[in-house]
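Notes from the pairing session

We agreed to fold both candidates in a single pass and log them together. This is the raw record for the first candidate, unedited. Please don't reformat it; downstream parsing expects exactly this layout.

Candidate A
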Amino acid sequence: EAETNQGFVAVGESPRGTSREMVEATLRDVMGRDLLATTPPTMWMSDGDLPQSYPFWSWQMQPKLSYLLMESLWLDAVGKAGGLPAHQLLGGAVRKRVLELLDAKKINIG
């Protein structure tokens, strides 16, 4: 979770095994940007202009940052700035609720 310049708390997620260093570097990079002026596929492209096509994915250009964390933070922050839930940015909800299969907080491993 990170706070944007506009005061929104954006919540993101990264894949299992993502290092703390990668998470922190991604948070520093993403939170220093104007998220309303970019999109996840173009955020890490070196050229400021939009390409005619996407010959390769932008996350290949930033191997020490987490694309999935950046994308989820972007969706949450931009959705909150626009007063929309993140699913609206993805085309709308497909179900009213999600079945909870496992609650990690209820598991006592020790």
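Candidate B (folded immediately after A)
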Amino acid sequence: ISASGSTPPEYPLDSISALHLMMIVKEAVNNGARHATANMISVSSAVNNNQWQLVITDNGKGFAWKGQQPSKDSNGITNMTERAKAIGAEFELKSQQDKGTSIQLTIPIS
């Protein structure tokens, strides 16, 4: 696992939002290690144009994903989506069979 980037210098993150954010990252990393059998997972953070972007990427087996609603068996994706909504973040998941998965969170800051 590698981590890189920057965080907003003075972004007040309340404890509930921090918990949601931490749980999204934890779920994405766990999915990469457990389900995707990835041998590389990266977490990157950047601040651009009043937005904080967190990207979690793995090189695992990926899955067929076309932006549809997660199935009832996809509790992790559903939970990440709901947690992102709760903190006002945009959640984007991209995955391709045999090409890995990328999750991007875009959090507005001001």
